[in-house]
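>> received
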Amino acid sequence: MATVDDVRRQFRNPPPEARPMMRWWWFGPSVDRDEIDRELNAMAAAGLGGAEVSFVYPMAPVTAPFGSPEFLELVGHASRTAQALGLRFDVTLGSGWSYGGPHVGTAHAARQLHWDRREIGEAAYDVPIAPAWPGDEFVAAYVGDGSAGAPSSYVEVPVSDGTIHVPAGGQPREVLIATSRVTGQNVKRAAAGAEGHTLDHYSAAAAREHIRAVAEPLLKAAMPVGSVFCDSLEVYGADWTPAIFSEFLERRGYDLRPRLYELLVDAGGARELRIDFGRTLSELYEDNFLKVFQRWAAEHGVPFRIQSYGEPPATMSSYRFADISEGEGWAWRGIPETRWASSAANIYGQSVVSAEVWTWVHSPSFRATPLDLQGEAHEHFLSGVNHLIGHGWPYSPSDGPRLGWIFYAAGALDDRNPWWPAATALFGSLQRLSWVLRQGTPVRPVKIYIPASDAYVAGGTEPRNLYRVVRRLIPEAVPRTIRDAGLDFDLIDDDAITTVDPADVPVIVVPSGTTLPTRTRAWLDAVTAAGGTVVTDLSTLADSLPPAPLTPVEDVGVVHRRLDDADLYFVANTAAEPRTLTFPTAMERWNPLSAESQTIHSTTLHPYESAVLVATTDVPGAEPSSYLVCAVEGDWTVAFGKEVAAVRLPHRWEDDPARTTYSGSATYRTEVDLPATTDRLLLDLGPGTPAPPDAEPYVPGNSYRALITPPVGVAADIYLNDVHCGTLWAPPYQVDLTAAARPGANDLRIVVHNTAANALSADQHLLDAAAESAVTYGRRFDLQHVEHATEYLNSGLLAVPRILRQA
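>> returned
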């Protein structure tokens, strides 16, 4: 906890641990010391807090195969360089995802239960057990009376000497044969030397083997590190492990083997058995993967950070066995993976919760603008995140052809972007917000119950991604209603109720028809007895919510945190149009871009703008009034390098066929007469124009983009009389000229920077490199959406600047 005076003071210059980091992709690996040093220095200069190194597929001939002495030496060099620069250095404990590689044989590989279903007659059968694939292991066989899926019950068939002995029967029958089969999934996007099976996440022996072969050498080479990392769980189809019969008996108290067929057949008790089976898989993942890696990391004094959702069926509470909970995904009115992680972090007392941010931002690579990054970061903050891990920074040789290397599907967020001069201010503002959102404690008066039992069953006979099934089972209107009411929520599950006091739950929403374990039902009764409200009818939810501390405003998300002596609010406008907030008492408004504060009774949040609010007893000053001095329509020139030409505004580069593939900067210049005044003088480019959601139809729904056509494409540095006055990339697109202004003639210079997407559209080298990699190393990736790189681009000075006078 902290006082508002402490937080206000440190907001201006927050500590470095709150700086955004970047996932740093090493392709191949094909890296060298000089480029490692250059890129880490560029990260530090931009105000980033460090790198999470990730080892992925080749883009060129491999120089240091994964796990080789040369590779480990380069990892160590990168770590030492980062430390010297004051950067945090994190390591992914493997290549690609999920964990695995050449050290994973069939004994430690991820497995799936496979069923062979046969209709037979009355005669006895002896069926030899013949593995169809390497690593196949016979599990059990069952026979039932009836045909074509008609049997409602089955009995286990005896097996001896490698043969299934099906006895004779008096009618047509059905035989079910269960086989444990290696899923066949290999590590996705693996580096050279890291190819192989994905490991069995239910087996402690498999986890320890991965630690021995991969994690231990990596950590030894990289120390000291900020954390060791595990990406999201994508072990598709994995629902079996050799020890599951004994584990199930110990955990559930009855034998799974005689009833195993109920995973396939809807027998009388199949629902309860499937719940127990799913719960057992979740516990095996926790005990034999999460705990093993967390304990190993703790022995080395290093935090274990993980995106604990997906397959295997991790529960929300599985995060309690991690040191740092991490999510991904933006949708502040919904239940993205970030909410899965932030709920666990809050309930289990983790003060920092991170997120993989900008995963699919404004596809393809290099289309993302600083405004896109700011808008998506706000969405993550609104979902409870307070540390950003950018996705990401592609290692790329400086002396390579054309643009260099990019990751197959993500933003390329490095200093090759022409708009990079805006990066320092952008990352500085996100650092302030990350830090302030760690202060005090979150106020989330509503809980949403996770119907895990129903999710285990809803997966049917297929492996289940518990998070995704839960998200389908909780109606979208539930989180939306809570957020639109100006309130916040946590998810809570059957394990978390042992941590949360029922008296601390004003409102909990339980989806209609949810299956409740006995202990959970008793806890909900305790919530009611303590004066809380259990909502099972969605139509009553809005009326059951407590009043919001701030008046709700459409599209404005609120995060409420309680300090020792004050309430603090992060507010963000997620719309492409302005939104106005009013308050019954005076508020301090803290600006994350400038760190300036003002006392207000109301405030306008421009599109994708955020602020921090704290109640105050100070008296608000008069609202500043702005007056137009002039529109700067004079004689403009534009310079692309040494090429200078007269130009009229607005000016769009793509209208010139010679500039359609140009990525870089251009300098606009004119002379402007300014009055003698003691008022502030502002350069104003206008608010931009909202863009329809379908303006770029090829962009997938999970690819964030700010829905606005800006007045400058996409960022600009403003100079008056050779004094740098500021950088523009986001509404309200205004810069204060006062300190540099003088009465009479003034030299106005606007340096505009676009994106690298124009150059990407003409970069045949990238397509050739991908094709050559596929020939040499096999097809490990496809470049995402590069054919759309030039669509809907708007570069240049797209509005006539105005000079405003503000009292």
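>> Residues 270-299 form the longest helix (30 residues).
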